[in-house]
Protein 1
Amino acid sequence: MAPRLILVSNRVNVPDGGPRQAGGLTVAVNAALKQREGVWFGWSGKVSDDDELSPPHVTERRRRTFITIDLSKTDFQEYYNGFANRVLWPALHYRVDLAEFTSVDLGGYQRVNGHFADALSKFIAPEDVIWVHDYHLLPMAQELRKRGHNNPIGFFLHIPCPPPDVLKALPHHEETVGALSYCDLVGLQTEQDADNLSRYFSGLPGAIQRAPGLFEFDRRRVRVRAFPVAIATAVYARAARNSVKSPLVEDLRQSLHGNRLILGVDRLDYSKGIPNRMQALGKFLEKFPAWRGKVTFLQVTPKSRVEVPEYIAMDEEVSTLVGKINGRYGDPGWTPIRYINKSYSRASLAGLYRSADIGLVTPLRDGMNLVAKEYVAAQDPENPGVLILSQFAGAAHELDGAIIVNPYEPEAVAAAIEQALEMPIEERRERQQGMFEHLATNDIDLWAETFLNALGETREQPRLLQSLRQLFASARG
Ligand code: F6P
């Protein structure tokens, strides 16, 4: 039987006419599956009323199989809203202070990982290569090993990995973060993340470090390495060129009456630093009054995780701040901040990015932040905008043509906005060119191929290498 690539993630983008998902994980998994025979397994996005497990839904599309299962209300509450999004999400974003741990939620998280492994188990053939994604599924490799699967298993963490001391603040961390040691390869967004996980692994009981980033636990070997996630740069640049003429962009342009446009695009999430950004905008308007009435800030912020209390609180906080700044600085003909909770397709956003003089990307902590990369890919090389980027986004390790800021210092962000608005065209072009070249070379296809190659090399087994070679050959063919 031909080897298949099995992708496992919480969300699955089933091509069944339902809403398309726009997150970074979806882009990455789609690239891994591109032209490869494969399976994508995960949650259907549906929550069923009863606690009985429903059979998996299977959808076949060309050479791909999509397998999803529903979650019960209890599972959704304990696994997704509870442990994944109220404990792991804040803690891995360095916000242990926001983590609300309960052993019930941890139990639900482990139970759902077990359900996923049970359901997936039936579809796994000995030749398959398995690639698990993100913090919802930290124990998945261990669960699959318990069920006797000796397949190569890779894992990629899309969000940050904090230092060992922070990881150890997670109650029962050995059962979640520590369970990653059952993988053959763990990929992280940056060298800093990889270093943090390596230091954590080396402190686990029984760990033997064989080489930098190579650990042995009870004769199991796991490698840790950075694989900065990327975008489909050429495709995105083309989408941006095409969508500048779209009605959305045309309407926006006309409504600006010649004002310069500053754009922010983020899910409504405390890791994105939206309140800090609003304060920085307030500072900018206070310190640089000559720009009042001449710039418009558009913040596009789809709501997410709307049942989680911290997200409900943030919604209130941002709306209040926007109201205050608009109240203080606006006048009948000009509103400084336009705040929108709608979500737009990646293609529509591409046109907005290309129209913006400044891309303001200032998360307090972010694994990578693909908005930053997409903003760069979308620019007109003759007249590019300027990226202002937080030092705490993974993308800051690569995008050296951005103005790098500390999002906790509103005055510095305000000064960066002024610098960007005044930046001469030659400097803008020069900064843009270097970043675009980097993104054009290091695109999402190369990312997927590099990860899968590294996974192939983790076991010195000719059969595995042969499987991986066949996967690549079918991808190229
Ligand atoms: O890795 C973080 C991530 O999975 C992103 O890819 C995506 O934008 C976001 O989280 C989606 O969150 P949720 O699945 O909770 O809506």
Note: The pocket of 6-O-phosphono-beta-D-fructofuranose is lined by residues 11, 23-25, 134, 158-159, 267, 304-305 (CB under 6 Å).
Protein 2
Amino acid sequence: MWQSCKPKAPTSVAIGDAATRSFVPPGKYDEFYNIVSGGFNGQMAVYGIPSGRLFKILPVFSVFPESGYGYSEETKPMLNTSHGFVPWDDLHHIALSTTKGEHDGRWAFGNANNTPRVARINMKTFRTEEILEIPNSGGNHSSPFITENTEYLVAGTRFSIPMGSNKDVPISSYKENFKGSISFVKIDPKDGHMNIAFQLRTPGFNYDLSRAGKGPSHGWFFFSCYNTEQAYTLLEVNASQKDKDFIMAVNWKKAEEYIAQGKGRVEKAKYAHNIYSDDVHSATSTMQQEVTVLDVTEFPDIVYFIPCPKSPHGCDVDPTGEYIVGSGKLAAMMPVFSFSKIQKAIAAKDYEGDFAGIPVIKYESALHGEVKKPGLGPLHTEFDEKGNAYTSMFVSSEIVKWNVKTLEVLDRVPTYYSIGHLSVPGGPTSKPHGKYVIAYNKITKDRFLPTGPELTQSAQIYDISGDKMQLILDFPTTGEPHYAEAIPASLVAPNSVKIFKLEDNKHPYAAIGEGQAKVVRDGNKVHVSMTAIRSHLTPDNIEGVRMGDEVYFHITNLEQDWDVPHGFAIKGNANAEILVMPGETQTLKFIPDEVGIVPFYCTDFCSALHQEMSGYLRVSPAGSKTPLKFSTGKIEEVN
Ligand code: RUQ
Ligand code: CUA
């Protein structure tokens, strides 16, 4: 039996009645929303904490046939880029908006790692409202990270690449020609709209992760950098030569001053800016043409390097804003830097030299201290409300708890297996909510029933309310989770939108009532303004469509009750379904490919007579004289 092959670990961990702490009784709500990145599925997912229950997959950078995201005419522009329509990406990091460093429940941001973009999700509708492409970026891993009051979202390039006018260069000219870039995206406090305020052009190597300063360090940003060897081949070996890489400290207030003084250089760039509006229930995509650039090597006081051992990955700022934790993936200890010491070192020009003209602060001068022997492969650190830090150890598969001030290791627990990110509710804010740490693991192996070669990814919840961390739940996740953020339900649930008001619907093809349902021919385009209400579609008989036509089904859901979506699908369509929320209009395009009668139906089991919620489209041969007609019950003729 397959059970007999099970390794020891899963059975040997006794969690006793600790599991009851993750139990949320039927009908009761979870305490936290947990917004989890989907990695290579390009989406976010919404779970409850502590139950680990999955509520929703929230489409962001990848098409989602389940809702029609990226398939409906209204949402297609959301995935437009300077490369055209891109149906997929890789989403690693979540950033929840903050005010004065604390969660405010307004927006969630996420990054597209592959085709550089950032997205903003409205936490009232749990929908992607805006996607902004990032130009001059070779991959958007170091992103998105936000400042204390969500003034800026910052996106750093993972790979350096040649930028500007001369891009066709030998790869071996990396040192001369390859540059990094950090984009400062201004967030409009009213509506969250994003615009690139400026980009910093930085030395050519890899930028990995980042955090903004807060409290005393507000106005600063800290980025982990690797491959300061500037290798361009076999990075596995060549980018691990040096003893230390850097944490890059950026004084963004200074950069703002230079921009205000007009010191930025306007450069040509091409990048898409896509915005979804709930008024017209549609997205528009505009192509932006320029970006303002500050080359940090030309300004002496924007950027400083701090040596950080062995290929740093996570770079995390504690809730007080004084301590910055660097995690060298290959280092046997973890350095904790002090913001006030960094300031002193800068004032005293306490430098060990420079890199590409940028001062390198002496390691000892910036250092608060080192966490000795924390574990193997430290990646990411989160914080609780009691002055403790929790670091994920990829290689030794554990979470290590330590005290930020004393640097003393307090506790360690195994994770199953190979933890990447971890998350404490409010962990990156100035006021952590604490209570749990959630591990996001890269490998599950034997934790769940096998499902062929591909196994589920998994997360694990540990209770951290006591001195000792205690495992209380494993829960499988969709995609590959990277970072996640949990936020108290009380900050989000009361604002949740239940319906869209029909009277506010400004979609050009909306039918606000069955009397407005119509079918209009415009050349070879046929626009059907159709309504959906329990339990019929109006019109449900359409004739006069011909081969060679493109049919646009604009479905308006007339319901004004919560939780009554209607769906729409039509036989043989080379497209997905659409799910239409109450009061909303969405459009599915259909190109008939054969003569005959084509059934369509509502895809969401909305009522006892859901199976009756259907209709027929008649498709006639090209050039046929069949008049355009539509009806529900009675016949109405158009033309
Ligand atoms: S990374 S597993 Cu893509 Cu956030 Cu560290
Ligand atoms: Cu509407 Cu089923």
Note: Helices lie at 9-12, 174-177, 235-238, 252-260, 339-347, 363-366.
